[in-house]
């Protein structure tokens, strides 16, 4: 069963509280990204955990292995459920960070968060992708990065719906595929390129659907949530 993650793309904790209160028990999983975390820091995480919500802390760490590990260790102390790094940081970075993070959490008796890797951002279209200089098409590059991620021992990837089925076919049912760029039928595309509807995401094998502005900026948030949950029923 695919799970909805609501992206809290905002800067103010009061706005977060308003949304969490409005959605109540209808939403159990929230994503905290750079915008909110850099503004409110651990207060945002502590609030969500106190409300018994699951948290995907989406900071996309990308640096040398030791620096990434130190960052992950600091974040693991917040007891979040999912953390992420950039797969393009390389196999050695991912493997070292994953193994060392698990060892740290075990020794400190902390919950071991799922560690996933970002493949290619869903905001990157064909033109930008070519300018970066990749020598293979997007789908093959995403699959290559996903295979590298699994080989390094991580739990899954962030990828667009357009690559989800390919990843599932090659890497199996138990590998997490978290898909941003989800746009329900009533929503605007905004700054995303490789997008799909909730039903398309589920059919293609996404384990988690990340949806933000289509919900958090809706005039009638509960109605928008109901429509999305209905689209997810396939």
UniProtKB/TrEMBL annotation:
It catalyses: orotidine 5'-phosphate + H(+) = UMP + CO2. GO terms for molecular function: orotidine-5'-phosphate decarboxylase activity. GO terms for cellular component: cytosol. Pfam families: OMPdecase. The keyword Lyase applies. Substrate binds at residues 9, 31, 58-67, 122, 183, 192, 212-213. Residues 3-228 form the Orotidine 5'-phosphate decarboxylase domain. Coiled coil: none annotated. InterPro entries: Aldolase_TIM (IPR013785), OMPdecase (IPR014732), OMPdecase_AS (IPR018089), OMPdecase_bac (IPR047596), OMPdeCOase_dom (IPR001754), RibuloseP-bd_barrel (IPR011060). Homodimer. This is Orotidine 5'-phosphate decarboxylase. It comes from Campylobacter ureolyticus.
């Amino acid at each position: 069963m695919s799970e909805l993650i609501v992206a809290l793309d905002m800067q103010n904790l009061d706005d977060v509280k308003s949304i969490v209160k409005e959605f109540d028990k209808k939403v159990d999983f929230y994503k905290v990204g750079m915008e909110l975390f850099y503004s409110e820091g651990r207060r945002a995480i502590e609030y969500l955990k106190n409300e018994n919500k699951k948290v995907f802390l989406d900071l996309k760490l990308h640096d040398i292995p030791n620096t990434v590990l130190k960052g992950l260790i600091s974040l693991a102390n917040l007891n979040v459920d999912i953390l992420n790094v950039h797969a393009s940081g390389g196999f050695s970075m991912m493997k070292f960070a994953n193994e060392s993070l698990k060892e740290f959490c075990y020794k400190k008796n902390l919950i071991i968060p799922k560690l996933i890797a970002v493949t290619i951002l869903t905001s990157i279209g064909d033109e930008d992708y070519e300018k970066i200089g990749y020598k293979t098409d997007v789908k093959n590059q995403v699959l290559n990065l996903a295979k590298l991620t699994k080989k390094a021992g991580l739990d899954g990837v962030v990828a667009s719906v357009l690559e989800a089925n390919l990843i599932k076919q090659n890497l199996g049912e138990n590998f997490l595929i978290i898909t941003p760029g989800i746009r329900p039928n009533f929503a605007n595309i905004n700054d995303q390129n490789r997008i799909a509807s909730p039903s398309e995401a589920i059919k293609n094998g996404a384990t988690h659907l990340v949806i933000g502005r289509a919900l958090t900026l809706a005039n009638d948030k509960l109605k928008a949530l109901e429509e999305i949950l209905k689209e997810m029923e396939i």
